[in-house]
Protein backbone atom coordinates (compact mmCIF):
# COMPACT_ATOMS: atom_id res chain seq x y z
CA UNK A 1 0.00 0.00 0.00
CA UNK A 2 1.29 3.44 -0.95
CA UNK A 3 1.61 5.50 2.27
CA UNK A 4 1.01 8.66 0.23
CA UNK A 5 -2.11 7.40 -1.55
CA UNK A 6 -4.53 9.84 0.13
CA UNK A 7 -2.28 12.82 -0.64
CA UNK A 8 -1.82 11.71 -4.26
CA UNK A 9 -5.57 11.26 -4.69
CA UNK A 10 -6.23 14.70 -3.18
CA UNK A 11 -3.65 16.24 -5.53
CA UNK A 12 -5.22 14.58 -8.59
CA UNK A 13 -8.70 15.73 -7.55
CA UNK A 14 -7.38 19.27 -6.98
CA UNK A 15 -5.68 19.43 -10.39
CA UNK A 16 -8.81 18.01 -12.06
CA UNK A 17 -10.88 20.75 -10.40
CA UNK A 18 -8.41 23.40 -11.59
CA UNK A 19 -8.55 21.94 -15.09
CA UNK A 20 -12.35 22.05 -15.05
CA UNK A 21 -12.17 25.69 -13.99
CA UNK A 22 -9.39 26.92 -16.29
CA UNK A 23 -9.26 24.40 -19.13
CA UNK A 24 -6.00 23.04 -20.50
CA UNK A 25 -3.91 26.01 -19.34
CA UNK A 26 -4.03 26.12 -15.54
CA UNK A 27 -2.28 29.26 -14.21
CA UNK A 28 1.03 28.44 -12.57
CA UNK A 29 0.15 30.50 -9.48
CA UNK A 30 -2.89 28.28 -8.89
CA UNK A 31 -0.72 25.17 -9.00
CA UNK A 32 1.84 26.87 -6.77
CA UNK A 33 -0.79 27.19 -4.02
CA UNK A 34 -0.58 23.44 -3.49
CA UNK A 35 -3.20 21.60 -1.44
CA UNK A 36 -4.14 21.63 2.21
CA UNK A 37 -4.49 18.32 3.98
CA UNK A 38 -5.21 17.78 7.67
CA UNK A 39 -2.18 19.10 9.49
CA UNK A 40 -0.05 19.83 6.42
CA UNK A 41 0.23 21.63 3.13
CA UNK A 42 1.52 19.75 0.08
CA UNK A 43 3.31 21.60 -2.69
CA UNK A 44 2.41 20.37 -6.16
CA UNK A 45 5.72 21.37 -7.70
CA UNK A 46 9.03 23.05 -7.00
CA UNK A 47 9.96 25.66 -9.63
CA UNK A 48 13.69 24.99 -9.05
CA UNK A 49 13.44 21.25 -9.56
CA UNK A 50 12.32 19.10 -12.44
CA UNK A 51 11.27 16.25 -10.14
CA UNK A 52 9.48 17.11 -6.90
CA UNK A 53 8.81 14.81 -3.96
CA UNK A 54 7.35 16.54 -0.88
CA UNK A 55 9.34 15.96 2.32
CA UNK A 56 6.26 14.66 4.09
CA UNK A 57 5.87 11.81 1.59
CA UNK A 58 6.97 8.44 2.92
CA UNK A 59 6.82 6.50 -0.35
CA UNK A 60 9.52 6.49 -3.01
CA UNK A 61 7.65 8.02 -5.94
CA UNK A 62 7.69 11.68 -6.90
CA UNK A 63 4.25 13.06 -7.79
CA UNK A 64 5.43 15.95 -9.98
CA UNK A 65 7.59 16.50 -12.99
CA UNK A 66 8.16 19.99 -14.36
CA UNK A 67 9.38 20.20 -17.92
CA UNK A 68 10.08 23.00 -20.34
CA UNK A 69 9.35 23.17 -24.02
CA UNK A 70 12.37 22.38 -26.19
CA UNK A 71 14.28 25.41 -27.38
CA UNK A 72 14.30 25.92 -31.16
Report what the structure shows:
- The structure is a single chain.
- The protein has 72 residues and is α+β, with helices and mostly antiparallel strands.
- The chain has one domain (5-65).
- It has helices spanning 5-22, 28-32; strands at residues 35-37, 40-42, 51-52, 64-65.
- Strands 1-2 form a two-stranded antiparallel sheet.
- The longest helix is centred in the N-terminal third of the chain and has 18 residues, at 5-22.
- The chain is globular.
- The N and C termini lie far apart (43 Å).
- The relative contact order is 0.20.
Q: Can you count the helices?
A: 2
Domains, number? 1
Q: Which regions contain 5 or more consecutive residues with pLDDT less than 50?
A: none
What is the string of SSEs from the N terminus onward?
HHEEEE
Strand content: 5-15%
Amino acid sequence: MDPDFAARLAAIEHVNALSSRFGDLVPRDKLAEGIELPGRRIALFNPQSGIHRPRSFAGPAAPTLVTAAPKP
